[in-house]
Amino acid sequence: MAILGNLIKGVIELKDTFSSEIVHKDAQESVLKLLLETAKNTQFGKHYDFESLLERSNLQASFAQTVPYFDYNKINAEWWYKYHENESDVTWPGHPSYFALSSGTTGKTSKRIPVTDAMIEAIRKAGIKQVFALKNFDLPADFFEKEIMMLGSSTDLDENNNHLEGEISGISASQIPSWFRGYYKPGEEISQIEDWDQRVQRIAERAKDWDIGALSGIPSWIELMLQKVIDYHKLNHIHEIWPNLQVYTSGGVAFAPYEKSFKALLGKPVTVIDTYLASEGYLATQVRPETDAMQLNTDNGIYFEFVPFKPEYIDEDGSLKPEAPALTLEEVETDQDYVLLISTVSGAWRYLIGDTIEFTNVERAEIKITGRTKFFLNTVGSQLSVNKMDAAMRELETQFKTTFPEYTICAKRGDDGEFYHFWYLGSDLQNPQEDEIAEALDQSLKAANKNYKVARSKALKGVKVKVIPAERFHDWSERNKKKGGQVKMERVMNDTKFSEWETFINEH
């Protein structure tokens, strides 16, 4: 009998009995007030006069009118660089204990994003919320006695002056409480291995020693790890070695593009729970099985704003135009893409995180990630967002009986001087009929997007497709020193980056 499991499940259910339902719009007002009150004596707070802001009748509107938009480059150039010159109280009281390294999709030198003790606590509380939400998924008591495989970046953080640096998944894993360490796999020793391939090799070697009930990590790297374990032990599927695997907690990117290829590695269905952990904070988690949408963590150290994702508000580099309007949670609606802005207990202010989302349920504050601002393709008016591209991939998977978990696209002139969309698709198809795939992709996008259909009748000449092994995309990430990390593969590339990509593909 699963005595410990029943005890843990009972505590989770009892906690929920005494919990009140969050009124998300009210929670957001309280969070903003707390953020401004805490940071009013920082350099940033004094510059934008948070003291006066706190006396205004409409705090949210006044905040939006007073503080400009920031992306990483802007806030780092104007404020965060001071932390590296040993200044304190810059955008948040004190000095950050950690900096999360994130190269995003650029492959350039890592961004250094402050992670304060207050953010570590906020991430911890969000993790507890996720655990308590498991009661909604009707899992058996013995599930709570199984081990959890958390696959992220190395927990061996680098010391740099008076702080530690690493990717957010490594920082979070390094903070695992002592009571949880018995459940946590692959364990501290393996998690500290810096080299991704070596770490996964050790996981494969030890896999038979563990009784894994849940997986947590970015889909593409979880798939590679599972495939390594399957190959190493000569299995048909992962459930032959981990028969009690019941839950996969996805994070970092939308799970939908990987769903078909992920399921192919399983022997039976598992419960998939989406989460939204970024370098800047733990933003949202799925709390109920009736939907795959995630609930924003509205009461936990992050204030959210939402800019309608429309071409007139977005610059070519994916940044926001200063005049773009920002809405509060009370003002948003469903079925509209929004650029996400956050202000946090790590001292990010009206910060463009780079993701776009849509609301599926405003009252519950439930969202889905729909893409990246830099991945919006509007050459010759085609107005393609990542969610439209992802949907087209799902149609192609059905039509051609394969998987397309990875892809990238560039809009540029062909040899004839006309504009084309050049696609590279990752698949294990043998002898793919690329012309047929291109035609099917073109038709799918025409049906899903009227702007694309208009563009195809005018300046956009056509679609060209090359199918390559999905592993080439992983190799590209590895070349950019991002293998196994918080990776968001470039779905849309400019001419320069695409030229580098094609050179890389043709060399290998």
UniProtKB/TrEMBL annotation:
Where in the sequence is the signal peptide annotated? none
Q: Which residues form the GH3 middle domain?
A: 298-362
Q: Name one Pfam family in it.
A: GH3
Q: Name one GO cellular component term.
A: cytoplasm
Molecular function (GO) terms listed?
A: acid-amino acid ligase activity
Q: State the protein's name.
A: GH3 auxin-responsive promoter
Q: Look up and give the organism this protein is from.
A: Winogradskyella arenosi
Looking up InterPro entries in the UniProt record yields: GH3 (IPR004993), GH3_C (IPR055378), GH3_M (IPR055377)
Q: Where is the GH3 C-terminal domain?
A: 390-496
